[in-house]
Fold each of these.
Amino acid sequence: MAKATKKASGRAKPPAPTATHEQRAEPAVEAGALPEAGDHVMGRKRVGGIDDRRNETEPKIRPKGTGTPEFRNGHWWVRISLPDNTRPRYRLCLEVCTCAEMSEAMVEERCESLSTRKRTEVKAQIAADDVAQRERRLTVEKFGAQWTSGELYTKHGEVNGLRTKASAKTDGYRLAAYVYSEIGSKTVAEVTEQDIERVMAKAEQTARKKFKRPWRKSSRFQLYQCLRRLFDLAIRPGRLRTDSPVSEYLRPGRDAPKLFGYLYPSELLALLKCKDVPVERRVLYALAVYTGLRKGSLYALRWSGVDFKHRTLTSLQSKTGLPQLFEVPKTLLALLKSWHTYRGGPKPEDALVPKVLERHREAHVLRDDLLAAKVTRTSLQGGADNVEPMRFHDLRATFVTWALREGRGDGWINDRTGHLTPEMRERYARAARTLSDLDYKPFPDIAKAIPELAKLPANVVPLNRSRRAQ
């Protein structure tokens, strides 16, 4: 059958179905069935209407990877060269066949349109398959890095609770210290429950050797939670496996209850007066006790967040992700005014206190500073298995204990601390009753407690500057 020619009307004339044509033609569809437009039908290759078994010459390839269109079984067909190195045949007409009415230009246009669509679809599918294949080979270390770096959140958004994680660096540290050395090179899909058991057992041995003491169950639980979350994300949105190897059977138990420390008012005053402790650290300690903020929130405070006129403090970074605005005690505000003068009038965007504590050394530094200030209460330094040595986080506990001793309600405390579980509140309430029994008054005047700041005038310039910055 020769290439279609135009009639006087401009329409392509379909070849007449001769007996020879019917014998050579391969049925494209079953009788009575109407294939969809663009359906792929297998058959012998035809070149200009001639059976390829009789003509071994290569077909003419049109632009966009299409072969020469041919009319067979009442429809126009064309082969398309796809990116996956296949050349299937597709029908050009829609559900309602208009092949007999198609002009040569319309046939050409349909060929190019169908070719572009099919080639795009196949190319996208090949790319998706390549990505899926690479991800199936993703190792635990690479996937963990995607999680802790925020790349996973950037890629998938808020799926399965993904968000910008405040403790991402801590999780990255745990994975690097205890997990990657054991299963980091394994693909995520290969990890088994036995692998997780081995990781947990090896981590305890490593921690015992490092800290020269048994690993606390709370620390083991934190590693367990980190692993559980990692493989939960590997299911969704990672789609790297369908189940988690971190089972409930591996969940560590709880540590025996311990005695946690907090400062007495006189001990805080002694610490703030000690000139052997850098003044930056003493200001940080005062802020921690009088605001109840966590360490990360304290370091994120800016001078623009201090409203001296209305006596409020704005904290934009918190563990819960919620910004906080609350009243500042007058005595702390007076200390901050002197601190502003001592710092030489910092800009509104400057940090309220610089980072003066080395990561993972905060507790040791605080206990050393207490000893330097001659605060020698034994329970603050530990010394027994059921006594927790004083930590930086216990300055926050000091705030809650003092607030309960002062008769503050849960709402007032939660505005500053973010949240307080019933169990923690009961622990602080017991400590507050002890302060009441001792008749200790909480939140003493600290306006002049730091000698280096006591003689400085309160600078009133930042009052308006801070307000404008907000």
Note: Residues 1-12, 15-61, 460-470 have pLDDT under 50 and may be disordered.
Amino acid sequence: MNKIEESGFCPDFFYPYFSAMGFADRYILRQIQGEAYIQQPVDPGLEMIVVIPVYDEPEVTRTLDSLAACTPPDGVLEVLLVINESEISPEEVIVRNDSTETEVLRWQAQNPDCFFCVHAIRPKPFRRKYAGVGLARKTGMDEAVRRFAKIDKADGILISLDADTLVAPNYFREVQTTF
């Protein structure tokens, strides 16, 4: 029995459809296109994913430092950086995004004992018509939903931050207490 059935809010005509699917399968089938960006297996203890769109943000590692200075939450935490550009982004932005990607890899190498895993994804350039922080955030959120769906974690916590956000040391504990 899945969570929808357990809630008692599952009309009979939906029962066969929902009983065979996980919590996010319908959304994934209808709203997410393409293969998953992250191929690493999902830790079954995953509790939170922080999604951060990154466009021309050379100091995103300050945000990672701020997150790493926090008291770790209960459970596993992942940080998903969506390094993005549009098909019409200036060459300078693309070069700075390349540098950002390199800086993130360097940060990971310098922080091997960090309590969270960082995934930096780089989708193909967004179409001009749709490009922007909204699509980058959706791309990251969709990837997070896929990861939670792989472990059937309907109550996973999704957090969205900007690339220049700094947080207090109790940030994750407070989020966890609230949700």
Note: Helices lie at 3-7, 15-19, 25-31, 60-68, 91-110, 133-150, 171-178.
Amino acid sequence: GLIWKILIILILFISISLGSCRKRFVCGLGNATYPSIPGKILSFKSIGIADSATASLSGRILGTISSDSLDLMEPLIISIIILINIELGDTIGTQSDMEGKFQLGFPSGHYNIYAIQTGFGQLEIKNVLFRPGERKELIALLDAGSYYKE
């Protein structure tokens, strides 16, 4: 209930503050100056309509050390996937499994979607409409490239 919502919002805040820095500014809580790397959408599509009032999002979160080596994509385990309902402000979240896969059911509406993994970039998709029963699939790539460059 309420404790999970507060925990998810806290994790989102910390992840965004640590990962949303820009050059010449102090990043997150430390003094590193690495730029944030935006995630990439590899696939985002509607995969059907269920006979239900509940919408769903499923998919996979992948990661790579460098965007120059996309053949080295690996599943990112325990990535955080958060949806924030734009109209109501409700927060719904889950995490990816050992294969980088996730699945989440929620009420229909307009949502902002976030995929976050510590040490990698983050993905933000704004104002996505989920109709009642609509099922969407997201496959995303988070890049850690600049975090390992010196």
Note: The longest strand covers residues 54-64.
